[in-house]
Automatic annotation (TrEMBL):
<dbReference type="InterPro" id="IPR035937">
    <property type="entry name" value="FPG_N"/>
</dbReference>
<keyword id="KW-0238">DNA-binding</keyword>
<keyword id="KW-0511">Multifunctional enzyme</keyword>
<keyword id="KW-0326">Glycosidase</keyword>
<keyword id="KW-0234">DNA repair</keyword>
<dbReference type="InterPro" id="IPR010979">
    <property type="entry name" value="Ribosomal_uS13-like_H2TH"/>
</dbReference>
<dbReference type="InterPro" id="IPR000214">
    <property type="entry name" value="Znf_DNA_glyclase/AP_lyase"/>
</dbReference>
<dbReference type="InterPro" id="IPR015886">
    <property type="entry name" value="H2TH_FPG"/>
</dbReference>
<keyword id="KW-0862">Zinc</keyword>
<feature type="domain" description="FPG-type">
    <location>
        <begin position="238"/>
        <end position="272"/>
    </location>
</feature>
<comment type="similarity">
    <text>Belongs to the FPG family.</text>
</comment>
<keyword id="KW-0227">DNA damage</keyword>
<dbReference type="GO" id="GO:0003684">
    <property type="term" value="F:damaged DNA binding"/>
</dbReference>
<keyword id="KW-0378">Hydrolase</keyword>
<keyword id="KW-0479">Metal-binding</keyword>
<dbReference type="Pfam" id="PF06827">
    <property type="entry name" value="zf-FPG_IleRS"/>
</dbReference>
<dbReference type="GO" id="GO:0006284">
    <property type="term" value="P:base-excision repair"/>
</dbReference>
Length: 287
């Protein structure tokens, strides 16, 4: 799943390529992807791109006040082409969801693997009209996101587990399954530790780890083409997706907790005092 660092990198990638470009056409292949009807996709035709920005994991292309916004969800991706085909896009059952072509014949395809079809596209005059954007928590890379901000969020979450709080877009925008694992490993904190139980020192460490991990991931992706971002993300992860491998810090074996539709990875030595977390939904420490 693309998370904040990959989405931010895509925003910068698109910003460089779409400056002074205008929409030539936007074609829809997966009708389930489009979540709005007014304005229609055709309203974008002929409009010049003024900015590309990010709201959490949402990408927002502003074309003279009409916004093409999309969320890539778990299996979506953006594929850039310097020259697009002139053939009309045909709706079908394949991975193609949407194609945007610009006045220099460059453009991008939005694709989605699998069958869940959670990729979402919106056309709107105001990003805040998209409910999931309006409900986003603060962005951890904004200047106003301070240690005090994090402290208030953690206290407000009560005894909710840290992993879930970091992933909750209504609490903190942009962090997903992979980078929450990486942040908690860097902070040496259990994913199941109660949010309001952190000491002052632990909060400082978590705050620093959050900033460092996200900024570091964005820096590693600087200058990369969109097609290379997935590989860079995977290569930069220390614990997420590395079950059974050695922890790069202590050489213990990275462990996993599986859920119905996801899993998390952690280092027992670095994060849970050597104890393995129960691999079940109750998420309790084995005794």
């Amino acid at each position: 799943m693309p998370e904040m660092p990959e989405v931010e990198s895509l925003v910068r990638f698109l910003g460089e390529r779409l400056a002074d470009r205008a929409f030539a056409r936007v074609e829809l292949a997966a009708f389930s992807a489009l979540k709005t009807y007014d304005p229609p996709l055709s309203a974008l035709q002929g409009l010049e791109v003024e900015s590309v920005r990010r709201h959490g994991k949402f990408i927002d292309i502003d074309a003279q006040g009409i916004h093409l916004i999309f969320h890539l969800a778990r299996a979506g991706w953006l594929r850039w082409r310097d020259e697009m085909s002139d053939k009309p896009l045909r709706p079908g059952k394949g991975p193609m969801a949407l194609r945007a072509v610009f006045d220099d014949n460059s453009g991008f395809d939005l694709t989605e693997a699998g069958t869940q079809r959670k990729l979402a596209v919106y056309v709107t005059t105001d990003p805040m009209l998209v409910p999931h954007i309006a409900g986003l928590g603060p962005d951890p890379l904004e200047d106003g996101f301070t240690l005090d901000t994090l402290t208030k969020l953690l206290d407000g979450a009560g005894r909710a587990q840290l992993k879930g709080v970091l992933k909750d877009q209504r609490v903190i925008a942009g962090i997903g399954n992979a980078y929450s694992d990486e942040i908690l490993h860097a902070a040496r904190l259990s994913p199941f530790k109660a949010s309001n139980s952190l000491t002052e020192d632990e909060r400082v460490i978590l705050f620093t780890a959050m900033k460092d991990e996200l900024v570091g991931a964005i820096k590693r992706a600087e200058g990369l083409a969109a097609k290379d971002l997935k590989g860079e993300k995977k290569s930069g992860l220390r614990v997420h997706g590395r079950t059974g491998q050695k922890c790069p810090v202590c050489c213990d074996t990275i462990a996993e907790v599986s859920f119905a539709d996801s899993s998390l990875q952690y280092c027992p030595t670095c994060q849970t005092g050597g104890k393995k977390l129960a691999d079940r939904r109750l998420s309790r420490l084995l005794k």
